[in-house]
Amino acid sequence: MSHCFPTASRQTEQLGTMVLLCCQRPKSPIDSIQWSTPNPFCSSVVPHRVERNLTCIPGEVHRTTGCYRTLLREVGSKRSFPQPAPHPRDILRSRRRAPFCAFPAGNAFLSTKEFTMSRTMQDFTDLLLQQGVISLDQLSEAEEVAKNTGADIGDVLIKMEYASPEEVGMALAKFHKIPFVDLRSERISETVIELVPESVARENTVLPFKEEDGALTILIADPFDLETIEKLRFILNRKIETALAPKEAINGAINQYYGQVEGESADSMLQEFTDTAIDFTETESDSGGGEETVDDNSAPVIRLVNLMIAEAVQLRASDIHVEPFEDRVRIRYRIDGVCVEREAAPRRMLSAIIARIKILSKIDISEKRRPTDGRIKITVGDKQLDLRVSIIPTNHGQSCVMRLLDKDNIKVGTRQLGLSERDFRNFNSLIRRPNGIVLVTGPTGSGKTTTLYASLNALNRPDRKIITAEDPVEYYLPGINQVEVKHNIGLDFARIIRAMLRQAPNIILVGEMRDHETASMGIQASLTGHLVFSTLHTNDAPSSISRMVDIGVPSYMVASSVIAVLAQRLVRTICPRCKVRYQPPQSVIEDSEIPPEMLAQAEFSKGKGCTYCGRTGYRGRIGIYELMLINNKLRELMFKGTTTKTIREEAIKNGMSTLYADGMLKVIRGITTFDEVYRVAKKTEQEALALSHIAKELSSL
């Protein structure tokens, strides 16, 4: 049975095109459609004729009709179409809340490529679900991130660590019915490598793999990129067959077989300054005396600063430290929370490096006596980053720290924070309450901003108004009003909160409750029906209650407004590429106080060290948490002004998992190591009780 109906309206007739849609189920969604040349009034190709007398499946009618109903709504047609029963496979897709295809604003029709890609990517994600690589919830979350960022769904799944590059690659290869190659276990002949020029391999991210029967097999990362495959056939002038490998693996193999990219590294640049005579100018030294310095406008200095930033991005550093000493300039990167020292620069380069950074961040280069701050916006490869620059004078000259703010770091959901299953359920529930204060505590660099932004991302909907007061605004969030503290004009946290309340917000974020006035205004906002997020600098969750009292907030107001406190730290995770199982010494296990029922499920692991993790055995970080939910018993203790120790004991009795206990849970699951947990969390008297709660939870799963 054929379902054909006209979809023409006055507007489409003006475009000179009459569209007939026939719903069918051919081999591909466009097999039966002949495509006209692009209309001069529309940038997309328009289908103008469809084969008739085709078998139709109701699910396909439903999907395609829905797309064209959207199309006709854009061009103003009032024609209505029947709603057939949904196909069973569409039920799965509707649960994911993702449309079959989306029409870009201002464009009435999808191009052939857009139409095909939309359908194909949905079928590919269905395959990932069927193979059990990802869950439906994970896919929904990844699709939301992909929609917001415009990134490929496969790249998002890998970035969110829901799937490995190999798992996505194997599924993609199976979907396209081409071989998958694991380059870690393969060796490619030099004669085959010579068949493809290095420039072609690097430009197109491809790698020659083998030659058989006159056909050259090329490894590609994106099977959807048919244009590149055709270009290779033309350039190489031979029969090409394709196989698939992860993009990262192909790039690594290109460097392995063709050699590293011919260019400069920061270390080689520093060596150049040490060994080569440089033309320099006489300027006043940062420390007050006269000394030889390199001109800040010289090309080598510009290249060095650029390379330093690019190398930090490549190494996933969060900070770049440029520190002056009497005989050298020390350069360090903070990677996964740990500082790593690079090649030291000659002392005479300090003025030029600092001046170049000041120029980039629009800081007055003549100001050398006061602390100064600035910001740099850069693009490295396909990454857009903000660098927050802080410069302070020291006894040996100006010291600079550049914090790299990667926007990808905030595009995470609460699921990726690393909360245990119980804490995740509780946290997700409490951030959806209509009012109250949620405090996130921990030292600088413990991931508080990421947790708060993940919470706001989860709550950010068109029916809610969210306002933040930050010092400074580190990341810009779409759909959220963000206000930056400016002390030079008297715009502090308390003043911003007072103005916020006249803006009728649903949710408020206050960067830090650092004084009595700010805390009082935050509490007032929560008591008048607003949900308030804020941070404190305390060692654990119970200490935040006494901290609020210490800054002058009455205990009864704290008890009536605070609904939860989340303390957190960051630990390094074991490198997935060199991870091995091992049995720790018995003395270490006994000292950890891990219950026997938890030890029975333990998968102790460590990293041997490889090039992927820089020989450290660690790559990436994850949070360990202490979530204290304020119940009636705790509220009563807070009213009485009870000590922090008593509040902590009561919270643990009520099931609170401590930082140490949550860290040990991640140790027995092979996520991190004992050393990492001991580095950021201390064991207290109540840890045995907290660990026993976790053991009971694990045994019930």
Note down, in words, how this protein is organized.
39% of the residues lie in helices and 22% in strands. The chain is an alpha/beta fold. Helix 4 packs across helix 7, helix 13 crosses helix 14 and helix 17 runs parallel beside helix 18. The chain contains 27 helices and 25 strands. The strands form 7 sheets. Strands 10, 11, 12, 13, 14, 15 and 16 form a 7-stranded antiparallel sheet that branches. It has a 7-stranded mixed sheet with strand order 19-18-20-21-17-22-25, with helices on both faces. It folds into 4 domains: 129 residues, no CATH class; 85 residues, GMP Synthetase, Chain A, domain 3; 143 residues, Beta-Lactamase; 290 residues, Rossmann fold (3-Layer(aba) Sandwich), CATH 3.40.50.
Primary descriptors:
27 helices; seven-stranded antiparallel β-sheet; alpha/beta; GMP Synthetase, Chain A, domain 3; Beta-Lactamase; disordered N terminus; 701 residues; 25 strands
Q: Could you estimate the helical fraction of the residues in percent?
A: 25-40%
Strand content: 15-25%
What is the CATH domain class of the largest domain? Answer: Alpha Beta
Whole-number mean pLDDT? 77
Question: Oligomeric state of the chains?
Answer: single chain
Q: Structural class per helix/strand content? A: alpha/beta
Family: Belongs to the GSP E family.
GO molecular function: ATP binding; ATP hydrolysis activity
Keywords: ATP-binding, Nucleotide-binding
Organism: Rhodopirellula baltica (strain DSM 10527 / NCIMB 13988 / SH1)
